[in-house]
Amino acid sequence: MKNKMKTFLFYDIETSGLNPAFDQILTFAFIRTDFGLNEMDRQTITIRLRKDIVPSPKAFLTHGLTYDELEHGVSEYEAALKIHNILNTPGTISLGYNSLGFDDIFLRFLFYRNLLDPYLHQYANGCYRMDVLPITAVFRVFYPSCLKWPCVDGKPSLKLDLICSENRFVTSGRAHEAMNDVEAVIELVRRLILQKDIWKYCLGFFNKTRDEIRISSIEKTFDIQSERFSVCLMVSASFGAGKNYLVPVIRLGESRVYNNQSLWLRLDSDDIIGLGTDKDLKDTFVIRKRPGDALIVLPALERFWTKLPEASQQSADENMDKIRRHQERFLEFIEYHCRYEYPFVPDIDPDAALYQDGFFSALEKKQSDLFHKAANNRKKEVLQKIQSPRIKVLAGRIFDRNFKDEAEQSKDSEYHFYLNRLRSSLPEDQFVGYKNDIKFNCEQGMRELKEVENDLLSLNPDQKKMFGWLKEYIMNLSIPPA
Among 10, 62, 328, 454, whose CB has the most other CB atoms within 10 angstroms? Predict the structure, then answer.
């Protein structure tokens, strides 16, 4: 493995909606390059729209994928196998723009519901993940002269299409089309990589071991009773231009429930530990970071600290004084969040149960492998022999979604019942996700169609045509078959 050449896999996805547990990836586009950004391979995988997916009109009007394009795609199961192999090619560093905040979560659930290891591409065979968006935020804050930065209504923006336009990057397609966005990210990286020292330093933020070592080496200078804490800076595009994508934080410690999860308290908030309103601790908030994720931590050096807006600097000083005056409350706050467990969702749908049900066991992996290795015409036979309740349910859904046509669906089958629930507006028929959210159903699809229809005059001719097929598709999906 040491001799295996590492490569970048720049990728982007388009989806049927915004819910990673329930919505479907429709296109996966990638360009593989060497570390000099020389192209080695490129491909777009298009995936047929599943019968149990209600497409979000707003999502489709953004990415512009047509029904005809999708009909020529492969099944979700076939795509999942291909994408899993691509991301797990030894030495692959997979990256995109906001990929850790969006794309990678979709991939995780795609792999899970198709009985593939959701995390393998994060750590095995010399593979790991990166995200160009937080790196871009670092350059925006600390080396702004590297690019021309777009503004919207006088406010800075890190939107990829605007950066692409402002800097006249050359790409081959339309904005929000997957391959076009991949090309735009590579062009952006070509500019950033010119600052070799900064780029190389940023790569280290996504190496889990190096990220942990860097954070652990930050000096602890904030004393509360007998404990010492590190005051740091955290960079993320999610903090917004008003904060200069940068906030002051204190590292509180490690979660005692979840491995590799550190806890951080923002120091620029109005009420950091629930003092101002006498909040119950359950209503307070901490940032949860994992090594190598999209949250970048820096030491609070003077040259970094001065990049904070003055209001953030002042809030940090005031809040550290508050903590010193309310030390018992601060330590109680830490204890609560270090012991915090995410609420159990009793009616969670199997597609969304990745985090709640955890890793596949050795037996579950073995049974999944038997299902994968079986020829398509023998998968039903293997399915009947699966003993694990979780694998049996997920494998059954794979079979129904990918190997049965509509004529084969029995009216008393579990999948027929599943589709009827999708058409229902009753609360008890909703599919519940890991955040206690629900799967986008026919009722929501019709509601979103009406919202779009109210603004129909603002759509271009292609979007109006797309609105027509979306309306027909969702209305037909809402009607049970005779």
Answer: 10
